[in-house]
Design a protein that fits this description.
Blueprint (H helix, E strand, L loop, with lengths): L3 E4 L2 E4 L4 E7 L7 E6 L6 E6 L5 E3 L7 E6 L4 E6 L8 E7 L15 E2 L3 E6 L1
Length: 122
C-alpha cells in the first residue's frame, strides 16, 4: 500500500511561487495527481501526470502550474507560479494503481497524502 507525504506548502503574497513535493513510499511510475481543497469547498483536481509523462491541467491553473515527477526519487512535484489568493487551499497528492490518468474522480485514487497548506495573500 502506497504512502504519500507532501511538503513545500507555505504562505506567499499574490504573484509569488511555491514548489510542492510528494514522496511516494512505493513507485511513482503510475498515474499521479494533485488536488486541492479550499475551506468550505469540495476537493478538486488540479493537475495529473501519467506513467509516460503526459500531463493535464484544469483551466484555472494552466500556464501557471507545472506538474512533474522524478521516478528515480519516487517524487511528484507541483511548481506553482503567479499565485493568486484563490489558489489558497490544502493541496493533496494522490496516486492509483494504473499508469493511465483519465479523470479527477476522487474514487479513482485510493492513495492520498495528508495535505500541505498553501496560503496566498493579496
Amino acid at each position: 500500500q502506497a504512502q504519500l507525504v507532501e511538503s513545500g506548502g507555505g504562505s506567499v503574497q499574490a504573484g509569488g511561487s511555491l514548489k510542492l513535493s510528494c514522496v511516494v513510499s512505493t513507485d511513482a511510475n503510475y498515474c499521479m495527481a494533485w488536488f486541492r481543497q479550499a475551506s468550505g469547498k469540495e476537493r478538486e483536481g488540479v493537475a495529473r501526470i501519467n506513467r509516460w509523462g503526459g500531463t493535464s491541467y484544469v483551466d484555472s491553473v494552466k500556464g501557471r502550474f507545472t506538474i512533474s515527477k522524478d521516478n528515480a526519487k519516487n517524487t511528484l512535484y507541483l511548481e506553482m507560479n503567479s499565485l493568486k489568493p484563490e489558489d489558497t487551499a490544502t493541496y493533496y497528492c494522490a496516486t492509483r494503481s494504473s499508469g493511465w490518468c483519465y479523470t479527477y474522480n476522487l474514487s479513482d485514487f485510493p492513495y492520498w497524502g495528508q495535505g500541505t497548506q498553501v496560503t496566498v495573500s493579496s
